[in-house]
Design goal:
two-stranded antiparallel ribbon; about 15% strand; alpha+beta; 6 helices; 7 strands; Muramoyl-pentapeptide Carboxypeptidase, domain 2; about 210 residues; 2 domains
Length: about 210
């Protein structure tokens, strides 16, 4: 039987802080600790992903303080509630989801954020390199991925030796119009087959009949 991967990978950098999830032994009740003005420890824990057999070990959650600072800066700029979609993820959970297990989420160095107007605001920030962009760069954000079609934003603190934050946009998948066109084409083929098949059978019948004569 394959030995499971450790819940907390040993390569987690020293800059990442481990927060105790529960208030006290016997570990009942998640701490009501505030990580920042608008983000609580409970929110971060609720957005973490670990396998079922790992939950008994999941008593601490690793979070890079720079991710908290950046998320609060984004929240202040948006001036609207932001939901945490994904914080810490274990390697076992990543592999279970057929992923490579190298995500910065497994290091506690990444959060996924969503909120009304967030994608639009972040798109403008990275395109214009405005005050928010400069603030995120100053905090230590090294990578931003914007998902305009899935409607969320990924931020992480991976090392970045370039002058700018590395930015990636989600690629557009097949639109509804593409799907409709495909369905129409398949329907046309089905109708064509329905018409051609009897004609082919009739032609074959007539050919054999006249051939006998």
């Amino acid at each position: 039987m394959k030995k499971p991967y450790p819940l907390y990978r040993p390569e987690i950098p020293n800059s990442v802080v481990f927060h105790e999830i529960y208030q006290q032994i016997p570990f009942t009740g998640i701490s009501n600790k505030q990580l920042s003005k608008n983000f609580s420890l409970k929110e971060a824990v609720d957005a973490a992903f670990v396998r079922g057999f790992e939950k008994s070990q999941f008593t601490r959650i690793p979070i890079d303080p720079r991710v908290i600072l950046a998320s609060q800066a984004i929240r202040d700029a948006l001036n609207k509630p932001i939901k945490l979609g994904s914080t810490f993820r274990s390697m076992e959970w990543e592999f279970y989801r057929k992923r490579p297990g190298t995500s910065r989420h497994t290091y506690g160095m990444a959060w996924d954020l969503s909120g009304d107007g967030l994608v639009k605001m972040m798109t403008e920030a990275v395109n214009t390199k405005n005050e928010l962009y400069r603030r995120l760069k100053q905090i230590g954000i090294g990578f931003i991925q914007i998902y305009p079609y899935s409607n969320f934003v990924h931020i992480d603190t991976r090392p970045n030796n370039t002058q700018d934050i590395q930015v990636v946009f989600e690629k557009k998948k097949g639109s509804g119009l593409d799907k409709i066109a495909l369905m129409d084409a398949l329907s046309f083929v089905a109708v064509l087959v329905t018409i051609v098949t009897p004609l082919f059978a009739l032609g074959n019948y007539l050919y054999n009949r006249f051939k006998k004569k």
